[in-house]
Amino acid sequence: MAVAAVVLYLVFAALGFGWRSWRQWRTTGSAGFRGISRGSGSLEWIAGTGFVAAIVTGVTAPLLQLAGVLAPLDVLNASWIQTAGVVLAVTGSGATVYAQNDMGESWRIGVDPSETTTLVHQGVFAVVRNPIFTAMLIFALGIVFMTPNPLAVAGFALLVAAIEVQVRVVEEPYLRAVHGQHYREYTATVGRFLPRVGLS
């Protein structure tokens, strides 16, 4: 399953980052990359670098398992768990692209505090506020199930932490500042990562 995990990771990267950035550039003239919004050591920087580290860890884990350096954890090393992992990874990858498309021209990687984009609250964004991150976590969990070694588990935990900090410390304050009461009404009815969970 390690080979399949690496292939799925490459497909996910090509679709979720490469193709989506290319499409954004074709539509708006910008690839959508905004980078890390604050300097070294800030919570914004920690979230951004943590996210990159989690992605690198996530793809390194199956490579090391393939090379025989890491062994799967016995408790998760079952064929039905690995099959469930394939289903989760494929579903998460497709859901990521779907949610990115629903975001339209407002799609960005990172936040530019001087920039104002439309608040997207239709489509899948009417169900959860951060469907792209939710889908990415589903994908990453699938990879963990496919190659359930300690590094994969650690990479997933790092991704969860990085996304939590990114959403709570970077994106939500920015959206509150830009969209005011409209955003507050949105957060009062739509869950952060899951329907009706994390209302504020």
Relevant terms:
two-stranded parallel sheet, globular, single chain, mainly alpha, 200 residues, 2% strand
Write the layout of secondary structure elements.
Layout: H1 2-28, E1 33-35, H2 43-66, H3 79-103, E2 109-110, H4 131-146, H5 150-189
Parallel strand pairs: 1-2
Describe the structure.
By secondary structure, the protein is mainly α. It has one domain. The protein has 5 helices and 2 strands; from the N terminus they run αβααβαα. It has helices spanning 2-28, 43-66, 79-103, 131-146, 150-189, and strands at residues 33-35, 109-110. The chain has a two-stranded parallel ribbon. 32% of the residues are buried.
Give the percentage of residues in beta strands.
under 5%
Backbone CA Rg: 17 Å
H/E element order? HEHHEHH
Number of helices: 5
Oligomer: single chain
Give a quick summary of the entry:
GO terms for molecular function: methyltransferase activity. The chain crosses the membrane at residues 6-22, 43-67, 79-99, 119-145. The protein is mostly helical.
